[in-house]
């Protein structure tokens, strides 16, 4: 099996007939545009909707506050949950 380098990418269009909904999820760049939140329960990760998702609406995700705190990840600009910063 080949390993990808950090400069490599996978063209998802080549696999559109065998891929799943995750190919439509992109990272949010601000709290205001975020409509999905990544959370962890035990060893499982979940995408939780934080607003109504309309047909053909882009899926934009970022980490929930608790997950960000445990992982020491930065919250999005405008997130009212707190101010966790990268180490």
Question: What's the helix and strand layout?
Answer:
Blueprint: E1 25-27, E2 36-41, E3 44-49, E4 59-63, H1 65-71
Parallel strand pairs: 1-4, 2-4
Antiparallel strand pairs: 2-3
Written overview of the protein:
It is a single chain. By secondary structure, this protein is mostly beta strands. It has a single domain, classed as SET domain (Beta-clip-like). It has 1 helix and 4 strands; from the N terminus they run ββββα. The chain has one helix spanning 65-71; strands at 25-27, 36-41, 44-49, 59-63. It has a 4-stranded mixed sheet. Strand 2 and strand 3 form a beta hairpin. It is globular and about 40 Å long. The model has no long low-confidence stretch (mean pLDDT 78).
Summarize the structure.
This protein has one helix at 65-71; strands at residues 25-27, 36-41, 44-49, 59-63. The chain has 87 residues and is mostly beta strands. Strands 1-4-2-3 form a four-stranded mixed sheet.
- Structural class, judged by helices and strands? mainly beta
Helix fraction bin: under 10%
Using only C-alpha atoms, the radius of gyration works out to 15 Å
- Sheet with most strands: 4 strands, mixed
This entry's quaternary arrangement is single chain
Task: Give the tags.
87 residues; mainly beta; Beta-clip-like; four-stranded mixed β-sheet; globular
